[in-house]
């Protein structure tokens, strides 16, 4: 007997977490041909790791579709005109990854402040070496994009004695700055590398990972960027 109203799961590969869907009728597919049969009755699409192209093609063949849920929090790279103009409900995974990413950013700050790369390099070479490290307490963290993830970062770095200066993009396109003293506009200039930077707006920078900024003339690192 044909199962009714299956959840269409758009994914580039299989995932062990799909076992959570075992109690629901669903179809995992990585291309539009594989989605075709289930798409006839699907009312829900779970955008897991599928491409925007696959979502766009699936939208055109899912005539009963009422809801699209994206696992990711960021939606900017997923949107296309047909989806924006459609009455279909679109939700995202806001908050799901915030705690984990907040911890990741704190780990990245400590990674550079304590020069963990040097510690590991010395460990591999069986070298005992004393060297100076930085304290993070009292330093400023700039958060570009003060959403759920940005607030998770702020709570964790504040607990370490760090100060927070954050910006948030408003619906009218203007930028709101929070934190810092009156007239302190450093958050609006953080792209220059003035201190550790957390980019909480994932759509603002498609790069993923952590890197250190270039050193100044004295060999001191000016800052670090954590992007996700």
What secondary-structure arrangement, pairings included, does this model have?
Elements: E1 7-10, E2 26-29, H1 32-39, E3 44-47, H2 52-61, E4 67-70, H3 81-85, E5 89-91, H4 98-113, H5 116-124, E6 140-144, H6 148-159, E7 163-169, E8 175-178, E9 197-199, E10 209-212, E11 224-227
Parallel strand pairs: 1-2, 1-3, 3-4, 4-5, 6-7, 6-9, 9-11
Antiparallel strand pairs: 7-8, 10-11
Helix pairs in contact: 1-2, 4-6
Short description:
With 228 residues, this protein is of the alpha/beta class. The protein has helices at 32-39, 52-61, 81-85, 98-113, 116-124, 148-159; strands spanning 7-10, 26-29, 44-47, 67-70, 89-91, 140-144, 163-169, 175-178, 197-199, 209-212, 224-227. The longest helix has 16 residues, at 98-113.
Molecular structure report:
With 228 residues, this protein is α/β, with parallel strands linked by helices. It has two domains: 7-91, NAD(P)-binding Rossmann-like Domain (Rossmann fold, 3-Layer(aba) Sandwich); 98-227, 3-Layer(aba) Sandwich (Rossmann fold). The chain has helices spanning 32-39, 52-61, 81-85, 98-113, 116-124, 148-159; strands at residues 7-10, 26-29, 44-47, 67-70, 89-91, 140-144, 163-169, 175-178, 197-199, 209-212, 224-227. The chain has a six-stranded mixed sheet, covered by helices on one side. Strands 2-1-3-4-5 form a five-stranded parallel sheet, covered by helices on one side. Helix 2 links the parallel strand 3 (44-47) and strand 4. It is elongated. Residues 201-222 have low confidence and may be disordered.
């Amino acid at each position: 007997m044909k199962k009714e109203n299956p959840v269409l799961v758009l994914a580039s590969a299989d995932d062990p977490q799909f076992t959570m869907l075992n109690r629901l009728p669903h179809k995992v597919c990585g291309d539009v041909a594989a989605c075709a049969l289930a798409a006839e009755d699907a009312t829900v699409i779970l955008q897991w790791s599928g491409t925007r192209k696959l979502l766009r093609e699936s939208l055109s063949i899912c005539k009963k579709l009422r809801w699209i849920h994206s696992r990711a929090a960021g939606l900017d790279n997923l949107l296309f005109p047909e989806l924006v103009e459609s009455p279909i409900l679109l939700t995202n995974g806001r908050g799901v990854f915030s705690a984990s990413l907040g911890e990741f950013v704190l780990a990245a700050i400590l990674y550079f402040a304590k020069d963990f790369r040097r510690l590991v390099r010395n460990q591999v070479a069986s070298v005992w070496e004393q060297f100076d490290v930085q304290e993070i307490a009292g330093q400023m963290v700039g958060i570009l994009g003060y959403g759920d993830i940005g607030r998770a970062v702020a709570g964790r770095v504040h607990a370490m004695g760090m100060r927070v200066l954050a910006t948030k993009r408003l619906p009218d396109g203007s930028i709101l700055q929070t934190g810092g003293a009156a007239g302190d506009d450093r958050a609006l200039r953080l792209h220059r590398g003035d201190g550790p930077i957390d980019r909480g707006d994932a759509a603002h920078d498609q790069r993923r990972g952590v890197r250190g900024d270039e050193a100044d003339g004295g060999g001191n690192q000016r800052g670090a960027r954590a992007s996700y």
